Amino acid sequence: MREIVFDTETTGLNPATGDRLVEIGCIEIINRVETGNSFHCYFNPERFMPAEAEAVHGLSDRFLSDKPLFASQALALLEFIGDAPLVAHNATFDFGFLNAELSAAGHEPICLTRMVDTLAIARKAHPGAKHSLDALCSRYGIDRSHRVKHGALLDAQLLAQLYVELTGGRQIGLGLKVDTLVATSELIVATQIRTAPAVFRAPRPHMASKEELERHHAFIQGLTSALWLEDAVAS
N or C: less crowded end of the chain, CB within 10 Å? Predict the structure, then answer.
């Protein structure tokens, strides 16, 4: 199964009030394993960058001034995404900006049925706990020591690892269902062997015959210095 894990950076919180997408990072995973394929791009938002937003991701007006417009990269992005489900943390936010940019560029928005929200998954798995990307990475032992500021590609890479953990780990795509069926079949066979009815066997005779007793007595008479004879004399 092919899925795309992605993250965005923006100029603010609401595309409806003029905020724009300035970075997107996408990671391809197939059967819960990263393939190494990715899509990453910065965009010129054609507006100034608020100081509070720049403090989060570090993307300045000067840095973004020579970057392409979203519209010029939309087809390449859509080709990379294909028809795969799209995984994001607080996915409503990322989908809102992505669809706003697509619509402004003359493309159809991405259907929300393709949205997979790891925030919702985390809230269900760990009610009452902290559900930020940082907190969840700490919970699952995912190394984020190289994360100084938010970055779309880096956060998507961390989220891809987190998504795998939240949905059962890499084993989910390693065919354990087949192994379980094999193990179950082996257990049934073993149980059948253990519980098979025993075959009746006639009891073997265990008493020595008269001839055997006479031969044994003759053998004993030929022994010298027998310990049991010494004990008999001593008593």
Answer: C
- Dihedral of CA 72/23/36/161: which sign? negative
Annotated binding-site residue? 7: yes
The answer to whether position 178 is within a domain reads no
Residue 43: both structure tokens together:
């965009």
Establish if 149 belongs to a structural domain.
Answer: yes
**Res 31 pLDDT > 80:** yes
Tell which residue, 62, 79, 64, 82, has the closest CA to residue 9: 64
Domains contained in the chain, number? 1
| 48, 61 contact by CB (below 8 A) | yes
Longest dimension (CA), the chain: 119
Active-site entry in 107, 126, 146, 150: 150
pTM: 0.71
Read off the pLDDT band of 182 (50, 70, 90). Answer: very low
Tell me whether residue 131 is one of the annotated catalytic residues.
no
Q: Is 231 annotated as a binding residue?
A: no
Residue 181, in any domain of the structure: no
For residues 117 and 130, what is the distance between their CA atoms, to the nearest angstrom? Answer: 16
Residue 40 assigned ligand-binding role: no
How far apart are the C-alpha atoms of 52 and 55, rounded to whole Å? 5
Q: Is residue 49 part of a domain?
A: yes
